[in-house]
């Protein structure tokens, strides 16, 4: 009797697990030629200011939905974060939280701003811990396939005393 129940339980667990797997958010990349030019320009600018690129990713986003990005940061290091949103969106926001879920950064840009689709900010963590960056953009047409791009730079060497060109 036990030999018949075990395969049935394993099959049931497998079906249940696959049903729940449908709800997982998966990071998907996107491609935008204008955004690619902005990315290349910013990489060049920050590398000249003494930063090294640690992480970058293009992300497929949906209007009004945050895309959480978890990153480990080292105490006392100088970081530069950049989020580039789809040029057709009208509002861009980035919030960053420390390990204790305290908001440490909030920036918002609007479509009409000079650098409206780019949010860039510096941050020096007080503790070595994970932080969560949450970019969001609001699009006029409520698009589901908005392109976004995030980059994380770290200041290197003796250049730590100069503020980068934002």
What does this 3D model show about the protein?
By secondary structure, the protein is of the alpha+beta class. It has a single domain (26-157), classed as Sandwich (Jelly Rolls), CATH 2.60.120. Helices cover 21% and strands 40% of the residues. It has 2 helices and 8 strands; from the N terminus they run ααββββββββ. The protein has a 4-stranded antiparallel β-sheet with strand order 1-8-3-6, with helices on one face. Strands 2-7-4-5 form a 4-stranded antiparallel β-sheet, with no helix packed on it. The chain starts with a helix and ends in an 11-residue tail after the last strand. The relative contact order is 0.26. Mean pLDDT is 82; it is low at 7-25 and 161-166.
């Amino acid at each position: 009797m036990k030999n018949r129940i075990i395969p049935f339980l394993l099959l049931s667990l497998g079906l249940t697990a696959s049903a729940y797997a449908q709800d997982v958010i998966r990071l998907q990349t996107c491609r935008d030629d204008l955004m690619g030019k902005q990315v290349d320009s910013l990489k060049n600018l920050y590398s000249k200011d003494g930063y090294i690129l640690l992480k970058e990713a293009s992300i497929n986003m949906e209007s009004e939905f945050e895309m959480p990005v978890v990153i480990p940061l080292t105490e006392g290091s100088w970081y530069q974060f950049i989020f580039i949103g789809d040029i057709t969106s009208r509002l861009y926001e980035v919030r960053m939280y420390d390990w204790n879920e305290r908001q440490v950064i909030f920036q918002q840009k609007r479509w009409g701003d000079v650098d409206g689709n780019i949010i860039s900010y510096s941050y020096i963590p007080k503790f070595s811990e994970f932080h969560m960056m949450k970019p969001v953009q609001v699009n006029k047409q409520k698009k589901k396939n908005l392109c976004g791009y995030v980059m994380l730079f770290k200041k290197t060497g003796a250049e730590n005393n100069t503020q980068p060109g934002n």
